[in-house]
Amino acid sequence: MVVAALAGLAHRAPAQGATDSARTISLGDAVTLAQRNSPIAVNARGQIKSSQAGVRSAFAAFLPSIDLQATNTQNSPAGVVIDSTGHVFSGKWQTSEGFSMGLQLFDGLARLYQIRASRADVNAARANEIAQSYQIALEVSQQYYAVLAAKESEAAAQAELDQAQQQLTVSRAKVEAQTSTKSDSLRAIIQVGNAQLALLQARNDLQTANATLTRLVGEPYKVTANAADTLAGPTVEVDSAKLAQLAAVSPAVQQAQASERAAQAQYRAAHAPYFPDISMAYNRARYHSDSTFNFFNRNGYNYSGTLRFTISYPLFNQLQREQDVVVAHVAEQNAEAVAHDAVLLAQQNLVAYIGALRTAQQQIDIQQVSVVAAEEDLRVQQQRYQLGASILLDVLTSQTQLTQARLALIQARYNYRVAKAQLEALIGQPL
Question: Which of 54, 62, 250, 261 is most buried, taking the most CB atoms under 10 A from its CB?
């Protein structure tokens, strides 16, 4: 009864994984959508706009400030009134109009260095946007390849199940012909059950991979990899010297170097308070008084105008200048260290990614041979078992070895694709 129950279970192949309808999408489209929708990309583009606004603000500091004033005041009781500017009003209503303009002539070159810092911030923001764009492409590529790997793993699991079911059929026939024992049939049933479980796990892994890809793409509909895509593909020639040159000017390195230049400019700007401040101010006004309210009366106005130049120098400000210089100098040193480390990190990652790419290629070559050998070994063992020249354990061992070789090939191809994407993200351009 136990044998019959197990045999019935073995005949019930797992139902095809019910997958919700998903839109197939190419890798290029997936990357494009993610670069458009990703919060990281949106933030990077926003940083560029903010830094560009900072440049405009830095240039605006060279422009004069202009203010317009107009007042109308009722005095009760009427009499002589002298306002804060020294104007004398003798009527019940006093009216004044005017404008003032101020212009900073010299500020210790603080504004000039601020422009340099703002421009460096723009360059840093642009480099960051490129770096983040390739980082997003890397994440999407990794997940896209994970979906392809999950699909191919599902296919490998299905092939294993098909082989196990075929072997079960052969084992039953041999048991009925009394050329084999019930033990062989039971082992075949167990092999089918294990293959069914592996297929269920592979389908679940595919569903999870699709869900992760959908989130990275950032679209409301579900997506999956294009059915025509596979992990197999052409290899690329690796020129280590050329890649080293590209890595030295990668977006991440350029961002760090631009931030360093901004910090240097801020450090120089921090010395501005050690120089005098020179400014100019001009004021033009007209005023009159009247017994009745008439704001638009053009008669009886008195006019005044002043031009003032001011030179100021803080002799002592509680050591604030000194502290600002120290803080700016520390920021400059930190930025310099970060820029230096960015170069070293690029070199480190370059060595690692090239090594991973070459290792993956060697693994692909080895596993391709292993798959062919394992397929032939399984064919031979199945023939020998049918002829009674070998035992079922040999067949089952060959089936397991073939499945392992197929999965190892899938993993090697996945590793190669990922290593290639990592190199592209590092240098900021496709290979």
Answer: 250
